[in-house]
Amino acid sequence: MNAIVTVVGEDKVGIIAAVCALLAENNVNILDLSQTILHGAFTMVMAVDVGGSSASIGELRTMLEDLGGKMGISIRIQREEIFDAMHRI
Amino acid sequence: MLNQKEILSTIEMIDQQHLDIRTITMGISLLSCCDPDPKRACEKIYEKITRYAENLVKTGEDIEREFGIPIVNKRISVTPMALVAGASETEDYVPFALAMDRAARTCGVNFIGGYSALVQKGMTVADERLIRSIPEALSRTELVCSSVNVGSTKAGINMDAVALMGRIIKDTAKATEAQDGLGCAKLVVFCNAVEDNPFMAGAFHGVGEAEKVINVGVSGPGVVHSALQAVKGRPFDVVAETVKKTAFRVTRMGQLVAQEASRRLDTPFGIVDLSLAPTPAVGDSVARILEEMGLEVCGTHGTTAALALLNDAVKKGGVMASSSVGGLSGAFIPVSEDEGMIAAAKAGTLCLDKLEAMTCVCSVGLDMIAVPGDTPAETISAIIADEAAIGMVNCKTTAVRLLPSPGKKVGDTVEMGGLLGSAPVMPVHPESSAAFIARGGRIPAPLHSLKN
Question: Structural domains in chain B?
Answer without folding.
Answer: 22-191 (3.20.70.20), 216-444 (3.20.70.20)
